[in-house]
Automatic annotation (TrEMBL):
Family matches, as InterPro entries: ConA-like_dom_sf, GH43_C2, Glyco_hydro_43, Glyco_hydro_beta-prop_sf, Glycosyl_Hydrlase_43
Domain Beta-xylosidase C-terminal Concanavalin A-like: 333-539
Keyword line: Glycosidase, Hydrolase
Species annotation: Micromonospora vinacea
Main enzyme class: hydrolase
Name of the protein this chain belongs to: Xylan 1,4-beta-xylosidase
Signal peptide: none
The keyword Hydrolase appears for this protein: yes
Length: 541
């Protein structure tokens, strides 16, 4: 099964969760006519805000990303798990509206967020220049009321020592004609006793305003909270029966971290909740696949509160009464015949521009011009794709002629600047081209000199990275078939949990992105080197 397309046997008329496997968090779901769209967070990766499309809520295909260039967002210097948080996708007056947050910091409660709005008549663009909104918090969303007014909601951050960092849900009117916020902001909702109130989405239904928020933090205590009011500005009453959805207190569930949800109503009046989940490799253990997207069926009686069966995430959900609409399967192998990178690929901190991602000079090859070191945050040269299963692999064939030890090209199992495994070609001091292995665990690097392989004049080298549950393995092919490096590396360091770092009660680092498999080229001397990749094959077991 592809990372980006979840295909379920339509004869069963069920949805198998997660519908978007691998790093696809904070889903915002939208229906326009017979089409359903899901927008998800992307943090420091381009393209920003991935969008998936469905016509039956069972089968999904990737439409790629909306934020494709620096005109819409500049991620140079972006920290690990900073960047694009919690997008919101709506449709109003013949236009798609996308609101997204660019979060710049974690330190001492200074998130330094900035919220933007772009619009388009078609989901595939072109998208307008961004409207700069406010920087008072993150997880911003739009609500288009029945009277024609539009409102911006968001988490209200409070940096002051001793205060609740999550100061409530704020609302302010947005003037669509003037493309600016108007009036004064006001706090709409201060949350339930669970706290960490964020991720608001507002709906009008059955004579009520319904406020859906994420609470409890984005890990094991995560939940979806529902509150309602007869008036836009409240007061909002929290569902007395507790959260609409949570995995908290149920470590036996396959789907954990259930929270951050948004609602959609089908053409036939059925309701569904899209939300994030995580699949730990052991009970409440590390989630190498990151935070994924799932869907639950919602029952909503007249004048009653919405309900998900049992209030917990189900692995299999009854599909809506809609015609089945599967999509063609994504090919396993990318031969790099297209003039642009395929939708399965993402690039780290800079868009895939021709100055470093070249699909033209050598047809049917991906030429990657080398970039910064693993800790560089301005111009790294890493082309990756999300890890979508506990068992999966990426293999490639690379041609690379390094001139010294500052030039490296190969394959990586990657999480962030501090956590990765890298098998690469480089040049030894004696002039040989060699294959070396290097790992980084929270910045502590481990080399494996005993595993160095003399390439011996071979111009085309096969490289393969394999995720096998909690282990990562690397293989190589010098023309005589695949050979495995005799070492198993720790896959669980490539996880949200491992990346998180709390110092004196403050987050010094966080983990929101999930693991990647990628093609990585480093030119540490700035000598202008490049590597050519002939193909890339991704498989899941």
């Amino acid at each position: 099964m592809s990372t980006d397309i979840a295909t379920v046997a339509t004869a069963t008329r069920s949805i198998r969760n997660p519908i978007l496997a691998g790093f696809h968090p904070d889903p915002s779901i939208l229906r326009v006519g017979d089409d359903y769209y899901l927008a998800t967070s992307t943090f420091e990766w381009y393209p920003g805000v991935l969008v998936h499309h469905s016509r039956d809520l069972v089968n999904w295909r990737s439409l790629g990303g909306i934020i494709t260039d620096r005109r819409l967002l500049d991620l140079r210097g972006c920290g690990d798990s900073n960047g694009v948080w919690a997008p919101d996708l709506t449709y109003h007056d013949g236009q798609f509206h996308l609101v997204y947050s660019d979060v710049a910091s974690f330190a001492s409660g200074y998130w330094d967020p900035q919220n933007f709005l772009v619009t388009a008549e078609d989901i595939t663009g072109p998208w307008s220049d961004p409207v700069k909104l406010h920087g008072r918090g993150f997880d911003a969303s739009l609500f288009h009321d029945d009277d024609g007014t539009t409102w911006l909601l968001g988490m209200s951050a409070d940096w002051r020592p001793g205060r609740d960092r999550f100061g409530g849900i704020e609302i302010q009117q947005y003037d669509s004609a003037a493309r600016r916020l108007v009036g004064s902001p006001r706090i709409l909702f201060t949350g339930s006793p669970v706290g960490v109130t964020e991720g608001p989405h507002l709906y009008r239904h059955d004579g009520w305003y319904w406020l859906i928020t994420a609470e409890g933090g984005t890990s094991w205590e995560h939940q979806v909270t529902v509150a309602r009011s007869r008036e836009l500005f409240g007061p909002y009453e929290v569902d007395p029966d507790g959260p609409l959805l949570t995995s908290f207190g149920r470590p036996e569930l396959r789907l954990q971290k259930a929270g951050h949800g948004s609602l959609v109503r089908t053409q036939n009046g059925e309701w569904y909740l899209a939300h994030l989940v995580g699949r730990p490799y052991s009970p409440l253990g590390n989630c190498v696949l990151g935070r994924e997207t799932a869907i639950q069926r919602v029952e909503w009686p007249s004048d009653g509160w919405p309900r998900v069966a049992g209030g917990v995430p189900a692995d299999d959900v009854v599909a809506p009464d809609l015609p089945a609409h599967p999509w063609p399967a994504e090919p396993e192998t990318d031969h790099f015949d297209s003039p642009e990178l395929g939708r399965c690929w993402s690039t780290l901190r800079r868009p895939a521009t021709p100055d470093w991602v070249d699909l033209h000079t050598r047809p049917s090859y991906l030429r990657v011009h080398g970039g910064q070191s693993p800790v560089g945050r301005q111009a790294p040269s890493l082309v990756g794709r999300r890890v979508g299963a506990m068992g999966c692999s990426l293999e490639t064939v690379v041609e690379f002629a390094p001139a010294d030890h500052r030039q490296l090209a190969g394959i990586t199992a990657y999480y962030n600047t501090l956590n990765w495994h890298h098998l690469y070609l480089t040049r030894a001091d004696d002039g040989r081209t060699v294959l070396e292995l290097l790992s980084s665990d929270n910045g502590r690097r481990t080399a494996y000199p005993d595993l160095t392989v003399d390439v011996g004049g071979v111009t085309r080298v096969g490289l393969r990275a394999v995720f096998d549950g909690p282990a990562v393995r690397f293989d190589y092919d010098l023309g005589a078939g695949w050979q495995g490096l005799p070492v198993e590396l720790d896959a669980t360091i490539l996880s949200d949990e491992h990346a998180a770092l709390i110092i004196d009660g403050e987050p010094a680092a966080w983990g929101f992105t999930g693991a990647f498999l990628g093609l990585w080229v480093q030119d540490l001397g700035g000598d202008g080197v490049h590597a050519d990749f002939d193909l890339a094959t991704y498989r899941e077991q």
